[in-house]
Design goal:
With about 120 residues, the chain is mostly helical. It has a domain of about 80 residues. The chain is built from 5 helices and no strands. The radius of gyration is 17 Å and the shape is globular. The protein starts with a helix and ends with a helix. The relative contact order is 0.13. The mean pLDDT is about 90.
Length: about 120
């Protein structure tokens, strides 16, 4: 039960942080280009790469931190970082073709699914 609470608290904080960063960047740089989302995705990639590596290799840590930071906070802040982390780990394992298929497939199929969802909403 504790892990769900940690994920929920981390997720709530990540959602608020995502809104705050996106809104502040958008108000400063404009919304013609999605600068806010880009900054959120890049900072999430930096944080997930750092925390999973540092917590996993450099220090002894409670599993609770894994539920709170990468799953809860970063998961709500941006799922793009998880996609990038999984691609990196697949590359590190030497499965280059699989990593490429995952990266390109996620992009192409995700874009297609988004288009289908938008088309369905317009059709209804």
């Amino acid at each position: 039960m504790q892990k769900y609470l940690l994920i929920a608290v981390g997720g709530a904080l990540g959602s608020v942080a995502r809104y705050w960063v996106g809104a502040n960047v958008g108000s400063r740089m404009g919304i013609r280009f999605p600068y806010g989302t880009l900054i959120v995705n890049l900072t999430a990639c930096l944080v997930i790469g750092f925390t999973l590596t540092w917590l996993g290799e450099r220090v002894e840590f409670s599993a609770a931190w894994r539920f709170f930071i990468p799953i809860g906070f970063i998961g709500a802040y941006s799922t793009f970082s998880t996609y990038e982390w999984e691609t990196l780990e697949t590359l590190r394992s030497g499965a280059f073709l699989l990593a490429g298929l995952y990266a390109v497939g996620s992009l192409v199929l995700g874009l297609g699914a988004t288009w289908c969802g938008a088309a369905l909403a317009e059709w209804l």
